[in-house]
Specification:
- The protein has 15 helices and two strands.
- It is mainly alpha-helical.
- The chain folds into two domains: about 250 residues, no CATH class; about 90 residues.
- Strands 1-2 form a two-stranded antiparallel sheet.
- Helix 2 packs across helix 3, helix 2 packs across helix 4 and helix 3 packs across helix 8.
- The model has no long low-confidence stretch (mean pLDDT about 95).
- Bound molecules: zinc ion (2 copies).
- One zinc ion binds next to helix 2 and helix 4.
Protein backbone atom coordinates (compact mmCIF):
# COMPACT_ATOMS: atom_id res chain seq x y z
CA UNK A 1 0.00 0.00 0.00
CA UNK A 2 1.27 3.45 -0.91
CA UNK A 3 1.95 5.70 2.03
CA UNK A 4 0.27 9.13 2.03
CA UNK A 5 2.49 12.08 1.05
CA UNK A 6 4.84 13.55 3.62
CA UNK A 7 3.96 16.87 5.29
CA UNK A 8 7.32 18.53 4.90
CA UNK A 9 6.47 21.59 7.04
CA UNK A 10 5.92 19.33 10.04
CA UNK A 11 8.93 17.10 9.34
CA UNK A 12 11.20 20.14 9.10
CA UNK A 13 9.64 21.86 12.12
CA UNK A 14 9.85 18.85 14.47
CA UNK A 15 13.31 17.70 13.37
CA UNK A 16 14.99 21.10 13.19
CA UNK A 17 13.72 22.25 16.60
CA UNK A 18 14.71 18.95 18.23
CA UNK A 19 18.14 18.99 16.64
CA UNK A 20 18.70 22.65 17.50
CA UNK A 21 17.75 22.02 21.16
CA UNK A 22 20.01 18.98 21.41
CA UNK A 23 22.99 20.90 20.06
CA UNK A 24 22.47 24.45 21.33
CA UNK A 25 21.49 23.75 24.97
CA UNK A 26 24.71 21.89 25.97
CA UNK A 27 26.84 24.22 23.83
CA UNK A 28 25.42 27.37 25.43
CA UNK A 29 25.53 25.89 28.93
CA UNK A 30 29.21 24.94 28.57
CA UNK A 31 30.24 28.17 26.81
CA UNK A 32 28.26 30.83 28.69
CA UNK A 33 25.85 29.14 31.12
CA UNK A 34 22.14 29.93 31.31
CA UNK A 35 21.23 32.34 34.04
CA UNK A 36 18.43 31.65 36.51
CA UNK A 37 16.03 34.25 35.09
CA UNK A 38 16.09 32.68 31.62
CA UNK A 39 15.62 29.17 33.05
CA UNK A 40 12.68 30.28 35.20
CA UNK A 41 11.12 32.06 32.22
CA UNK A 42 11.52 28.93 30.08
CA UNK A 43 9.89 26.74 32.75
CA UNK A 44 7.07 29.27 33.19
CA UNK A 45 6.42 29.33 29.46
CA UNK A 46 6.49 25.52 29.43
CA UNK A 47 3.71 25.55 32.04
CA UNK A 48 1.81 28.26 30.10
CA UNK A 49 1.89 26.11 26.93
CA UNK A 50 1.22 22.82 28.71
CA UNK A 51 -1.66 24.02 30.87
CA UNK A 52 -3.26 25.83 27.93
CA UNK A 53 -3.35 22.48 26.16
CA UNK A 54 -4.47 20.35 29.13
CA UNK A 55 -6.89 22.72 30.87
CA UNK A 56 -7.91 24.57 27.68
CA UNK A 57 -7.72 22.43 24.53
CA UNK A 58 -8.32 19.16 26.35
CA UNK A 59 -10.55 19.45 29.41
CA UNK A 60 -12.40 22.65 28.44
CA UNK A 61 -12.85 22.50 24.67
CA UNK A 62 -12.53 18.83 23.70
CA UNK A 63 -14.51 17.41 26.63
CA UNK A 64 -16.48 20.37 28.04
CA UNK A 65 -15.77 19.25 31.58
CA UNK A 66 -16.39 22.82 32.83
CA UNK A 67 -17.20 26.28 31.56
CA UNK A 68 -14.77 29.17 31.62
CA UNK A 69 -14.91 32.95 31.63
CA UNK A 70 -13.87 34.60 28.32
CA UNK A 71 -10.64 35.88 29.86
CA UNK A 72 -9.59 32.32 30.74
CA UNK A 73 -10.50 31.10 27.25
CA UNK A 74 -8.47 33.92 25.72
CA UNK A 75 -5.51 33.01 27.92
CA UNK A 76 -5.70 29.35 26.80
CA UNK A 77 -6.18 30.33 23.14
CA UNK A 78 -2.96 32.36 23.25
CA UNK A 79 -1.07 29.66 25.21
CA UNK A 80 -2.32 27.00 22.77
CA UNK A 81 -0.98 28.96 19.80
CA UNK A 82 2.30 29.39 21.70
CA UNK A 83 2.41 25.58 22.12
CA UNK A 84 2.15 25.21 18.33
CA UNK A 85 -0.25 22.28 18.30
CA UNK A 86 -2.73 23.54 15.74
CA UNK A 87 -5.87 25.52 16.58
CA UNK A 88 -8.13 24.56 19.49
CA UNK A 89 -10.89 23.72 16.98
CA UNK A 90 -8.69 21.36 14.98
CA UNK A 91 -7.07 19.79 18.05
CA UNK A 92 -10.44 19.17 19.73
CA UNK A 93 -11.94 17.70 16.58
CA UNK A 94 -9.07 15.19 16.29
CA UNK A 95 -9.31 14.44 19.98
CA UNK A 96 -13.03 13.75 19.92
CA UNK A 97 -12.45 11.29 17.08
CA UNK A 98 -9.67 9.70 19.16
CA UNK A 99 -12.07 9.07 22.05
CA UNK A 100 -14.91 7.89 19.86
CA UNK A 101 -12.83 5.41 17.86
CA UNK A 102 -9.98 4.75 20.27
CA UNK A 103 -7.57 2.03 19.01
CA UNK A 104 -9.40 1.54 15.71
CA UNK A 105 -6.46 1.93 13.38
CA UNK A 106 -8.18 3.45 10.37
CA UNK A 107 -10.33 5.85 12.43
CA UNK A 108 -8.44 6.88 15.56
CA UNK A 109 -6.11 9.63 14.24
CA UNK A 110 -3.32 8.60 16.61
CA UNK A 111 -4.16 4.99 17.32
CA UNK A 112 -1.63 3.45 19.73
CA UNK A 113 -2.21 0.08 18.05
CA UNK A 114 -0.15 1.42 15.15
CA UNK A 115 2.87 1.61 17.43
CA UNK A 116 4.78 4.10 19.55
CA UNK A 117 6.23 6.15 16.69
CA UNK A 118 2.92 6.58 14.87
CA UNK A 119 0.90 7.57 17.95
CA UNK A 120 3.66 9.84 19.26
CA UNK A 121 4.55 11.85 16.16
CA UNK A 122 4.25 9.76 12.99
CA UNK A 123 0.55 10.59 12.54
CA UNK A 124 1.48 14.25 11.99
CA UNK A 125 4.21 13.61 9.44
CA UNK A 126 2.05 12.37 6.56
CA UNK A 127 -1.34 13.31 5.16
CA UNK A 128 -3.29 10.56 6.93
CA UNK A 129 -7.06 11.23 6.89
CA UNK A 130 -6.50 14.07 4.48
CA UNK A 131 -10.13 14.06 3.29
CA UNK A 132 -11.43 14.84 6.78
CA UNK A 133 -8.71 17.34 7.63
CA UNK A 134 -11.00 20.36 7.97
CA UNK A 135 -14.23 18.57 8.77
CA UNK A 136 -15.21 20.11 12.09
CA UNK A 137 -18.77 18.78 12.17
CA UNK A 138 -18.07 17.06 15.52
CA UNK A 139 -17.28 20.48 17.06
CA UNK A 140 -20.34 22.57 16.25
CA UNK A 141 -20.49 23.68 19.87
CA UNK A 142 -16.95 25.06 19.61
CA UNK A 143 -17.80 26.86 16.39
CA UNK A 144 -20.17 28.97 18.46
CA UNK A 145 -17.33 30.10 20.73
CA UNK A 146 -16.03 33.39 19.27
CA UNK A 147 -12.63 32.97 20.96
CA UNK A 148 -12.14 29.51 19.45
CA UNK A 149 -13.06 30.84 16.00
CA UNK A 150 -10.89 33.94 16.39
CA UNK A 151 -7.91 31.74 17.31
CA UNK A 152 -8.64 29.36 14.44
CA UNK A 153 -8.79 32.22 11.93
CA UNK A 154 -5.62 33.94 13.11
CA UNK A 155 -3.79 30.81 14.19
CA UNK A 156 -0.66 31.31 12.09
CA UNK A 157 -0.22 34.95 13.10
CA UNK A 158 -0.78 34.05 16.77
CA UNK A 159 1.83 31.29 16.71
CA UNK A 160 4.41 33.64 15.18
CA UNK A 161 3.63 36.51 17.56
CA UNK A 162 3.75 34.32 20.67
CA UNK A 163 6.75 32.18 19.70
CA UNK A 164 8.88 35.10 18.58
CA UNK A 165 7.36 37.64 20.98
CA UNK A 166 7.91 35.75 24.25
CA UNK A 167 11.50 34.83 23.31
CA UNK A 168 12.20 38.49 22.45
CA UNK A 169 10.55 39.72 25.63
CA UNK A 170 12.59 37.44 27.90
CA UNK A 171 15.72 38.24 25.89
CA UNK A 172 15.12 41.95 26.32
CA UNK A 173 14.32 41.66 30.04
CA UNK A 174 17.37 39.50 30.77
CA UNK A 175 19.70 41.15 28.30
CA UNK A 176 20.49 37.67 26.91
CA UNK A 177 18.82 37.37 23.57
CA UNK A 178 20.58 34.19 22.41
CA UNK A 179 19.96 32.34 25.69
CA UNK A 180 16.29 33.27 25.56
CA UNK A 181 16.02 32.20 21.92
CA UNK A 182 17.48 28.78 22.82
CA UNK A 183 15.62 28.21 26.13
CA UNK A 184 12.27 29.99 25.75
CA UNK A 185 12.06 29.81 21.96
CA UNK A 186 13.29 26.37 21.00
CA UNK A 187 13.75 24.11 24.03
CA UNK A 188 10.41 25.08 25.59
CA UNK A 189 8.70 24.26 22.29
CA UNK A 190 10.40 20.87 21.89
CA UNK A 191 9.65 19.81 25.48
CA UNK A 192 6.07 21.07 25.31
CA UNK A 193 5.54 19.15 22.06
CA UNK A 194 6.93 15.83 23.23
CA UNK A 195 5.37 15.97 26.69
CA UNK A 196 1.95 16.36 25.06
CA UNK A 197 2.71 13.71 22.42
CA UNK A 198 3.49 11.26 25.24
CA UNK A 199 -0.21 11.28 26.14
CA UNK A 200 -1.00 9.63 22.82
CA UNK A 201 1.93 7.21 22.89
CA UNK A 202 3.21 6.45 26.39
CA UNK A 203 -0.19 6.82 28.10
CA UNK A 204 -1.58 4.18 25.75
CA UNK A 205 1.28 1.75 26.30
CA UNK A 206 2.75 1.62 29.80
CA UNK A 207 0.91 1.74 33.09
CA UNK A 208 -2.02 0.20 34.92
CA UNK A 209 -5.65 -0.26 33.98
CA UNK A 210 -7.66 0.02 37.21
CA UNK A 211 -10.94 1.11 35.56
CA UNK A 212 -11.22 -0.51 32.15
CA UNK A 213 -9.32 -2.72 29.74
CA UNK A 214 -11.65 -2.05 26.84
CA UNK A 215 -9.03 0.26 25.32
CA UNK A 216 -5.25 0.73 25.55
CA UNK A 217 -5.31 3.80 27.85
CA UNK A 218 -3.17 3.45 30.99
CA UNK A 219 -2.73 5.23 34.31
CA UNK A 220 0.87 6.28 34.82
CA UNK A 221 1.90 8.46 37.77
CA UNK A 222 5.33 9.28 36.31
CA UNK A 223 3.83 10.50 33.06
CA UNK A 224 1.46 12.74 35.02
CA UNK A 225 4.50 14.74 36.17
CA UNK A 226 5.46 15.62 32.58
CA UNK A 227 1.93 16.18 31.35
CA UNK A 228 0.39 18.37 34.07
CA UNK A 229 -1.72 15.48 35.35
CA UNK A 230 -2.78 13.82 32.12
CA UNK A 231 -0.97 10.60 33.00
CA UNK A 232 -4.12 9.17 34.57
CA UNK A 233 -5.33 8.28 31.12
CA UNK A 234 -7.14 5.05 31.95
CA UNK A 235 -9.48 6.98 34.23
CA UNK A 236 -9.79 9.71 31.62
CA UNK A 237 -10.85 7.39 28.79
CA UNK A 238 -13.68 5.83 30.78
CA UNK A 239 -14.83 9.05 32.51
CA UNK A 240 -13.95 11.67 29.91
CA UNK A 241 -16.45 14.27 31.16
CA UNK A 242 -14.70 14.54 34.53
CA UNK A 243 -12.61 17.71 34.96
CA UNK A 244 -10.13 15.64 36.98
CA UNK A 245 -7.74 13.00 35.66
CA UNK A 246 -5.97 12.20 38.92
CA UNK A 247 -8.80 11.72 41.39
CA UNK A 248 -6.92 11.06 44.62
CA UNK A 249 -5.57 13.97 46.64
CA UNK A 250 -2.02 12.67 46.23
CA UNK A 251 -2.29 12.37 42.44
CA UNK A 252 -0.21 15.04 40.70
CA UNK A 253 -2.80 16.83 38.58
CA UNK A 254 -2.01 20.57 38.39
CA UNK A 255 -4.57 20.95 35.59
CA UNK A 256 -7.27 19.90 38.06
CA UNK A 257 -5.87 22.27 40.70
CA UNK A 258 -5.85 25.13 38.19
CA UNK A 259 -9.48 24.52 37.19
CA UNK A 260 -10.55 24.27 40.84
CA UNK A 261 -8.69 27.49 41.67
CA UNK A 262 -10.36 29.24 38.73
CA UNK A 263 -13.72 28.09 40.08
CA UNK A 264 -12.94 29.62 43.50
CA UNK A 265 -12.17 32.87 41.69
CA UNK A 266 -15.49 32.67 39.84
CA UNK A 267 -13.73 32.20 36.49
CA UNK A 268 -14.77 28.56 35.97
CA UNK A 269 -18.20 27.05 36.57
CA UNK A 270 -20.10 23.75 36.24
CA UNK A 271 -17.10 21.56 37.03
CA UNK A 272 -18.20 18.03 36.19
CA UNK A 273 -17.30 15.08 38.41
CA UNK A 274 -18.07 11.39 38.04
CA UNK A 275 -20.10 10.06 40.98
CA UNK A 276 -17.84 8.10 43.35
CA UNK A 277 -20.29 5.21 43.17
CA UNK A 278 -19.61 4.77 39.43
CA UNK A 279 -15.84 4.97 39.91
CA UNK A 280 -15.89 2.26 42.58
CA UNK A 281 -18.21 0.08 40.49
CA UNK A 282 -15.76 0.29 37.56
CA UNK A 283 -12.80 -0.60 39.80
CA UNK A 284 -14.56 -3.58 41.38
CA UNK A 285 -15.75 -4.83 38.00
CA UNK A 286 -12.14 -4.78 36.77
CA UNK A 287 -10.93 -6.74 39.79
CA UNK A 288 -13.71 -9.28 39.25
CA UNK A 289 -12.80 -9.60 35.59
CA UNK A 290 -9.10 -10.21 36.33
CA UNK A 291 -9.81 -12.75 39.09
CA UNK A 292 -12.26 -14.60 36.87
CA UNK A 293 -9.68 -14.70 34.08
CA UNK A 294 -7.13 -16.19 36.51
CA UNK A 295 -9.66 -18.78 37.65
CA UNK A 296 -10.49 -19.66 34.05
CA UNK A 297 -6.97 -21.03 33.75
CA UNK A 298 -7.66 -23.52 36.55
CA UNK A 299 -9.90 -26.53 35.98
CA UNK A 300 -10.88 -27.06 39.60
CA UNK A 301 -12.03 -23.51 40.15
CA UNK A 302 -15.73 -23.57 39.29
CA UNK A 303 -16.84 -23.52 42.91
CA UNK A 304 -14.44 -20.69 43.73
CA UNK A 305 -15.69 -18.69 40.76
CA UNK A 306 -19.27 -19.05 41.87
CA UNK A 307 -18.39 -17.87 45.36
CA UNK A 308 -16.44 -14.91 43.98
CA UNK A 309 -19.38 -13.83 41.83
CA UNK A 310 -21.97 -14.35 44.56
CA UNK A 311 -19.95 -12.28 47.06
CA UNK A 312 -19.44 -9.66 44.36
CA UNK A 313 -23.19 -9.31 43.89
CA UNK A 314 -23.60 -8.74 47.63
CA UNK A 315 -20.77 -6.19 47.57
CA UNK A 316 -22.28 -4.21 44.70
CA UNK A 317 -25.68 -4.20 46.39
CA UNK A 318 -24.10 -2.84 49.58
CA UNK A 319 -22.16 -0.26 47.61
CA UNK A 320 -25.31 0.95 45.89
CA UNK A 321 -27.29 1.04 49.14
CA UNK A 322 -24.56 3.07 50.79
CA UNK A 323 -24.31 5.65 48.00
CA UNK A 324 -28.07 5.95 47.58
CA UNK A 325 -28.50 6.72 51.26
CA UNK A 326 -25.54 9.10 51.18
CA UNK A 327 -27.16 11.00 48.33
CA UNK A 328 -30.49 11.07 50.19
CA UNK A 329 -28.87 12.43 53.31
CA UNK A 330 -27.11 15.10 51.27
CA UNK A 331 -30.40 16.21 49.71
CA UNK A 332 -32.22 16.17 53.02
CA UNK A 333 -29.51 18.34 54.57
CA UNK A 334 -29.62 20.73 51.62
CA UNK A 335 -33.38 21.16 51.78
CA UNK A 336 -33.35 21.18 55.59
CA UNK A 337 -36.26 18.80 55.17
CA UNK A 338 -35.93 16.66 58.26
CA UNK A 339 -36.06 17.13 61.99
CA UNK A 340 -32.77 16.80 63.84
CA UNK A 341 -33.77 13.48 65.35
CA UNK A 342 -34.59 11.90 61.98
CA UNK A 343 -31.41 13.29 60.48
CA UNK A 344 -29.41 11.67 63.26
CA UNK A 345 -31.12 8.38 62.54
CA UNK A 346 -30.16 8.67 58.88
CA UNK A 347 -26.53 9.45 59.77
CA UNK A 348 -26.45 6.42 62.04
CA UNK A 349 -27.93 4.20 59.35
CA UNK A 350 -25.41 5.53 56.83
CA UNK A 351 -22.52 4.74 59.15
CA UNK A 352 -23.77 1.19 59.61
CA UNK A 353 -24.14 0.72 55.89
CA UNK A 354 -20.65 2.07 55.30
CA UNK A 355 -19.21 -0.30 57.86
CA UNK A 356 -20.98 -3.27 56.40
CA UNK A 357 -19.93 -2.28 52.86
CA UNK A 358 -16.28 -1.84 53.93
CA UNK A 359 -16.27 -5.25 55.66
CA UNK A 360 -17.73 -6.93 52.61
CA UNK A 361 -15.18 -5.14 50.41
CA UNK A 362 -12.24 -6.29 52.53
CA UNK A 363 -13.49 -9.86 52.56
CA UNK A 364 -14.18 -9.88 48.85
CA UNK A 365 -10.80 -8.35 47.94
CA UNK A 366 -9.10 -11.08 50.00
CA UNK A 367 -11.04 -13.66 48.07
CA UNK A 368 -10.30 -12.01 44.70
CA UNK A 369 -6.60 -11.61 45.45
CA UNK A 370 -6.26 -15.27 46.39
CA UNK A 371 -7.58 -16.62 43.13
ZN1 LIG B 1 -9.37 13.25 26.20
ZN1 LIG C 1 -6.05 8.70 24.68
Amino acid sequence: MNKPPIIWTNVILFSSTLLAALILVPWYQVTYGFDAFVIIAAVASLFFCGLSITAGYHRLWSHRTYQAHWSVRLFFAIGGAFALQNSALHWSSDHRVHHKFVDINDKDPYSAKRGFWFSHIGWMLRHYNHEQYDDYSNCRDLQRDPIVMWQHKHYLALTLITNIGFALLVGWLSGQMLASFIAVGITRLVLSHHFTFFINSWAHMWGSQPYTDKNTAKDNALLAVFTHGEGYHNFHHIFESDYRNGIKWYHYDPTKWLIKTLSWLGLATNLRKTPQQKIEQAQLAMILKRSTQRLDLRHDAEEMKQKLHAEYEILVTKLNEFYTLKKRLFEVKKRKALKDYDKLQLVKQLKELQQSFEQQRQAWLMLANHT
